[in-house]
Amino acid sequence: MTVTAPDRSIILFGAPGSRAKIDTPALVLDLDAFEHNVALMAETCRRAGIGLRPHAKTHKCSTIAKRQIAAGALGIGCATIDEAEVMVAAGLPGVLITSPLVTAGKIARLARLVEAGGDVMVVADHPANVAALDQAIGATGRTLRVLVDLDLGHHRTGVGTVADGVRLAREIASWKALRFAGVQAYAGHLQHIADHAERLARTRAADALVADLVAELKAEDLAPAIVTGAGTGTHRINAAGSPFTELQAGSYIVMDAEYGGIEYAPGESWPFRPALSVAVAVTSANVPGSVTTDGGTKAFALNGPRPRVASGPLAGAAYEFSGDEHGRVSLPEGTATPALGTVLECTVPHCDPTIAHFDAIHCVRGDRLVDVWPVDARGRRAPLPPG
Amino acid sequence: MTVTAPDRSIILFGAPGSRAKIDTPALVLDLDAFEHNVALMAETCRRAGIGLRPHAKTHKCSTIAKRQIAAGALGIGCATIDEAEVMVAAGLPGVLITSPLVTAGKIARLARLVEAGGDVMVVADHPANVAALDQAIGATGRTLRVLVDLDLGHHRTGVGTVADGVRLAREIASWKALRFAGVQAYAGHLQHIADHAERLARTRAADALVADLVAELKAEDLAPAIVTGAGTGTHRINAAGSPFTELQAGSYIVMDAEYGGIEYAPGESWPFRPALSVAVAVTSANVPGSVTTDGGTKAFALNGPRPRVASGPLAGAAYEFSGDEHGRVSLPEGTATPALGTVLECTVPHCDPTIAHFDAIHCVRGDRLVDVWPVDARGRRAPLPPG
Fold first, then answer.
1. Which residues pair with A308 in a beta bridge?
2. Domain map (residue ranges) of chain B
3. Is A286 close to B380, i.e. CB distance below 8 A?
4. DSSP states along A275-321
5. Backbone angles phi, psi at A121, to 5 degrees
6. Do A5 and B324 lie within an 8 Å CB cutoff?
7. How many other CB atoms are found less than 10 A from the CB of residue A226?
8. Residue B309 pairs with which residues in a beta bridge?
9. Segment B315-322 mean pLDDT
10. Contact A103/B23, CB-based, under 8 Å?
């Protein structure tokens, strides 16, 4: 299943004022801010002499992935086999699946991607998984690059010690259909530490563990070609001297309200700009002091700061969820009740799961809707296998 | 965009043990429990002499809507124009859109549905909206049935007083292309009151307001043909004598963990069975005492009780979210660590937004996967309009 018809909003493309006519609820991407963010992260990595493999779990959108590659990224991170299938089908290079694929069904799908010539890699954290990968890939006559996933204290995936990491790398290298390609070490638990000094100290401690594993691997003649990790929250620290050869940041393309409460660096504010909002419309205005809108818990992620109205006469007003399909906005004192149908653009709580609620991203410049990009890696969109 | 290929799991249909091989994360529907629930609500309404127009916002699935109609439902509730477009296209009768449609784009889409002969109605709570509806429908040469939406204290949508309700009904009846069809009064804020006595008292108080409006309308020669409302939480109270001609319950088809904490009736437990779960797979098992799975905040709704493992050796173990793509399950003492790839079925926090995360519903009987139904009203799936 692929998104063929982008959206009926296409009829408004380029018309003055069309931004305010986008069918709600909708994701709205400010292209100027987005392009600034894409270019800035690419330039930051270039200057630091480090690679960038941005994570597609944020956007699930092959159009955005292509923009990132065009700006210099060396590949794309994917959280799921579904995302990887879409990115490979769209011709994206250097697709790294950043979570272990362990079920028979997912390993079979990975093997089909490899067999079709997809430029894809995967991480692993367990010898049983490595053996299963070799068996499936071996049957295709091709080879698969596999990275050792190292746990930096998040306790989500990864081997827990340097010794286990070396053992697993040796294991990978021992199989006929697999190639040991490097190390992944992603510190998800460090990305949102608000205090910069603490984030710096803990990131450096995590870096030391990664450096240990890299050194041990080199000593074993298993020098990792790729050392990948880091997110938007620690990218600057990791870019400024770390064992990493590349960064996996994702959120920087659009930012979200979560990063508003995090100290970028001493005396510096975030150079990435909030580029994404959720547009909702006023659908009821019978209760004095508030209006109801058409965006509820099916339009916003709940794991992040509460949305706020981003601009216009109600700017700053907080969003109160009023069920799965509705939201409520209290009117700031002295504000006139907006007319039914008024579109309010709201801040995004946590970007990844908010984007995953939508089929399309509405791209705007100024007051104009100029494009619609399908969130084509959302859900399960790969075709049925033969048979 | 329509779901044409259901799912690659189709290759397992009917095979013994295929339930445990469903590709994760996945929605799993126990057909025996689901069919019990559909039949029981239909029978409850029949016995009470009240109609049933179940709400499709719960399932967003035309296959389920057809099952409900086959069991005797007189129509289908829809929260959005997107849902209504899918249900009408699938041939469902009596589609009632239960939130006001106020933007120009949505009213135009509603007019297209009416023009195409769709059996569709909508609620309204404001004269300006009624005027806009008449203008759009008038241009089609058809008529549209419109219900007055009455606010029962939720303060989400609806007119706030009986007098406003009568005025709006008169307004609807005065337009050429509109027909006054009745009253909607949905008490979303009463559905989850845990204590039965309190839920009963507050529902009866709300009923009194509805009865007042109905009486006033009759006195004005505007007798409402339809009086619609109620949800799963208050259905029994509303069915046992109320001003309603029909119920709008939705959650009863699958139930969810939210209803676990709510007293059904004095001395009685819920007769509807939990029919839905989210299947996840163990993807990492390197941390003693816990395992990581492939279901995070993109697979479960967050506005409900935390998921638990529903069956098997880890039954009852609580789910801890570990990001958008991962969950963690602590192993009960004495439990062996499950093998990588082990599928765990988990309870559903809040059914509506959980279902809305998925493209497909995997239907099982016993240990077998027997069907896959597309969640075809998820997202925006209607074709582009001409031009």
1. A318
2. 8-28+271-374, 32-253
3. no
4. -EEEEEEEEE--STTEEEES--TTTS-SSSSPPBB-SSTTTTPBEEE
5. -130, 165
6. no
7. 20
8. B346
9. 93
10. yes
Q: Phi then psi for B204, rounded to 5 degrees?
A: -65, -35
**Prediction ipTM score:** 0.93
Distance from the A83 Cα atom to the nearest Cα atom in chain B, whole angstroms: 12
pLDDT at B384 > cutoff 60: no
B377 and B56 Cβ atoms separated by less than 8 Å = yes
Query: Could A157 and B326 be called an inter-chain contact, meaning their C-beta atoms sit closer than 8 Å?
Result: yes
- B-chain residues near A302 (CB < 8 A): 297, 302-303
User: Domain B32-253, what architecture?
Assistant: Alpha-Beta Barrel (3.20)
A340/B155 Cβ within 8 A: no
- Mutate which of B2, B98, B156, B300 to test chain A, going by most A C-beta atoms within 10 A? B156
Which chain B residue shows the shortest CA-CA distance from A8? B384
The tokens describing A273, both together, are 């700009």
Residue of A nearest to B292 (CA): A156
Among A8-12, A19-23, A172-176, B249-253, whose mean pLDDT is lowest? A8-12
For A31-253, the fitting CATH number among 3.20.20.10, 3.40.50.970, 2.40.10.120, 3.40.720.10 is: 3.20.20.10
pLDDT in tens, B59-112: 999 999 999 999 999 999 999 999 999 999 999 999 999 999 999 999 999 999
DSSP assignment of A235-253: HHHHHSS-S-SEE---GGG
pLDDT of residue B10: 61
- CATH code, residues B8-28+271-374: 2.40.37.20
With b meaning 16 or more CB within 10 Å and e meaning fewer, what string describes A162-177?
bebbbebbbbbeebeb
> Mind giving me the DSSP string for B211-239?
HHHHHHHHHTT---SEEEE--TTTHHHHH
**Residue B122, amino acid:** V
Look at residues A59, A53, A102 and name the one whose alpha carbon lies nearest to residue A81.
A102
Length of chain A: 387
Cα separation of A364 and A32, whole Å?
8
More confident residue, A112 or B384: A112
Q: What confidence tens digit (pLDDT) does each residue in B182-225 have?
A: 999 999 999 999 999 999 999 999 999 999 999 999 999 999 99
Q: How far apart are CA A124 and CA A167, in angstroms?
A: 12
Fold matches, A8-28+271-374 and A31-253: no
Instruction: Give the mean pLDDT of B364-373.
Output: 95
Q: Which pLDDT band holds residue B11 (cuts at 50, 70, 90)?
A: low
Determine the distance in angstroms separating the CA of B353 from the nearest CA of chain A, rounded to an integer.
6
pLDDT of residue A247: 98
The confidence score (pLDDT) of residue A11 equals: 64
Spell out the long-range contacts of A262-269 with Cβ–Cβ below 8 A and sequence spacing 24 or more: A262/A192, A262/A193, A262/A194, A262/A233, A263/A194, A263/A195, A263/A196, A263/A199, A264/A196, A264/A236, A265/A196, A265/A236, A266/A196, A266/A197
* Residue in this structure with the two tokens 């050429």, named with its chain if needed: B176
